[in-house]
Amino acid sequence: MNQTNTPHADPVEDQVVTGMDGEELSELISQYEESAKNTSNDKDEDGGKLRTFQNKIFKGVLRYTAIALALYHIYALIFQLPIPLVLYSIHWGMGLTYAFVYYPSYKGNKKALRKTFGIIDAILAIATIAVVLYILRDPNALMYRVSKANANTLDLVFGTIAMILSLEAARRTIGLGLPIIALVFFAYAMWGNYLPGMIASKGYSFRRVISFIFSVEGIYGSPTASSAQYVFLLIIFGAFLGYSGTGEFFMKLAMKLAGHARGGPAKVAVISSGLFGSISGSAVANVMGTGVFTIPLMKKTGYKPHFAGAVEAVASTGGQIMPPVMGSGAFIMAELIGYKYSQIALGALLPAILYYLSILLMVDFEAAKSGLLGVDTSHMDAAKKILKQGWNLLVPLIILIVCLAFFQFTVARSATLAILATIIACALKKETRMNFKTILDGFETGVIRSVSVICAVASAGVAIGCIMLTGVGAKFAFAVLTLAHNNLFLTLLMSGLAATILGMGLPTVAAYIISASLLASSLVQLGIPIFAAHMFLLYYSILSQITPPVALAAYAAGNIADANPNKVGFTAMRLGVIAFIIPFFFVYGPALLMIGTPLEIIEASITSLIGCFFLAVGLEGWLVEKINIPCRILALGAAFCCIAAGLVTDLIGLGLIVAFLLLHKGTRHKLLRKKSA
Q1: Residue 596 or 668, more confident
Q2: At what angle do helices 119-137 and 84-102 cross, to 10 degrees?
């Protein structure tokens, strides 16, 4: 164990903590492994209880229907069935039906009547199936009618039912936020003509609005298409990785590599949550999964509860900007802007490295200030042995990356091969081998985990349909540009704030899609490359997860840490501060997104890494020892200049670093002379 100790300022809990012994660590690891084995479907991503059923026949019907639907998706996507609407409607129907079956009408209500599957739930589920059957009866004719605003009475009836069902399913699974946004846009489409000035719309008839919503421009448009084509199979892949023990493998490896170091438990949380968060696709789900191990570990070694929760929240949130999977964000963006996955993943790499490096540095400096040690990992297997034991678990991830980045396979084919690779790779070792039941469990779990995403994109489809019908996106962009007086910085500031507000309480996928629909054009109009504009909005849509007052990831972590959720949220914002500023820098300097000449990219990479280091120094007020305010200001100034791409700013940043080092050295010498005197 690393015995480095610095017994000076600001000790955690008013004392220096000496770390955790091997016996305590073993017990905590055993508890985590036991909980990980019980990969049940009885909780939603927020940790709330889902319905469970005792009737074996009903449970069997739900289980094998889910498995059949998952296999149908794979078949339809690989063999490219001729009518996409067929897949999209079945995908929508699957998500909503399981939402009404598994999700109680009111979360947290203690009345048994509302926790059990009742008549209303059955009616809603049957209504969902009826809408799907109506679409499948003649999908081409239906789409022709609604696209020409020539919907008949039955079309309007089923279209209205589909909209209501989408909003109710979203309310049950993710809360009121997105349904309210969708209803606002629906009201705008219907009665926008009563609004004054430039914000007014034509005001469309009920027939026209429902026709648009009940089409491939609305509920069954790009959000649902992205979910069906990309997100769904990746969620299933994540479920299989969960059953394979990949999460525990990442945790053990991170623990062995970093657990013994100063502030080791926090570093373990950052590394393991970042690795698995990229695949899980949900910051909250990742907090609930890995946080049950990392947060108690951090608390036991001396970190304050709110700081422990913040570290896990910010690490889990960052998984959605971390290649290769980026929580499905890369694939959604590829669909919206017409880029290849490999281009987006490569461009996102450097900002993601800066994000996690800054967090690692800040938790290290926090540990140094507080005299925190690591944990005793001597009883654990060597890192080489852990890799030898779990190397097969890395094969599916490697296959997914190779298929996507090098062979340019479709997401469906790549994810399918990765799922097959998981089953085969696990079979290579007795400890990880999956039986037939576990394989079926993987498909079922993937379907249930996808429900909240499907409901979110369906509800987002209602909003997107109204946005496209009314053209409010262009008006919104014009309003932003007008208010900002076409100033790039002000436009970015307003867009980032709007994206964060829109993302509060929403899954990242839905938040990003809505933000892109409303805000992307205003950024592109100012000459920002479309990739940089969309990456900017993706970042701020994600950051709503750790931004109070509705910081879902921070609140989930606070619940585990038994800490004030707002305190966790604001601490997470401080730890993840680079994520708030770096989008501005890669807009002004696209070299950070690998856009530019090789020399520009190399220069931006080196100087941004230096800037990241001094950002942590300035924010934490630590370099070997505590530093004063003037030194912190110089460090922050150097950080901002170095991260900003450009020769002039880089030179200014290096000059500020020299000034910082000279001032810090002089201050140290003065203190030493005082002490000696």
Answers
A1: 596
A2: 180
Section 365-370 average pLDDT: 87
pLDDT of residue 28: 64
Give the Å distances, CA to CA, from 597 to 591, 593, 601. Answer: 8, 12, 6
State how far the Cα of 493 lies from the Cα of 197, in Å rounded to an integer.
25
Residue in 87, 85, 92, 88 with CA at minimum distance from that of residue 167: 92
* CB proximity list for 440: less than 8 A, separation 6 or greater: 63, 67
Stated as kind and residue range, the H or E segment containing 668 is helix 647-676
| Closest to 373 in 3D by CA, of 293, 298, 296, 290 | 298
The full length of the chain comes to 677
Rounded to two decimals, the pTM is: 0.84
If residue 109 lies in a helix (H) or strand (E), which one and from where to where?
none
CA 501, 504, 508, 511 torsion: positive or negative? negative
Q: State whether residue 301 is helix, strand or coil.
A: coil
User: What is the Cα–Cα distance from 668 to 614, expressed in whole angstroms?
Assistant: 18
Determine if residue 108 is left, alpha or beta; phi over 0 gives left, psi from -120 to 50 gives alpha, anything else beta.
left
Q: Given this model, what pLDDT does residue 13 score?
A: 37
CA nearest to 453, candidates 239, 140, 245, 242: 239
* Residue 505 host element (H or E): none
3-state secondary structure 456-481: HHHHHHHHHHHHHHHCHHHHHHHHHH
611 neighbors 640 (Cβ within 8 angstroms): yes
Q: For residue 259, which phi and psi values (nearest 5 degrees)?
A: -60, -35
Cβ(195)–Cβ(203) below 8 Å: no
- The mean pLDDT value for 448-477 works out to 91
Distance CA 139, CA 294 (A): 49
- 251: closest CA among 284, 297, 283, 285? 297
The structural domains of the chain, with segments of one domain joined by +, span 56-225, 600-677
Q: Which residue has the tokens 């309480």?
A: 505
Whether the Cβ atoms of residue 514 and residue 180 lie closer than 8 Å to each other: no
Per DSSP, helices labelled H in 526-597 are: 530-543, 552-561, 565-575, 577-588
> What's the rounded Cα separation, in Å, for the pair 89 and 227?
12
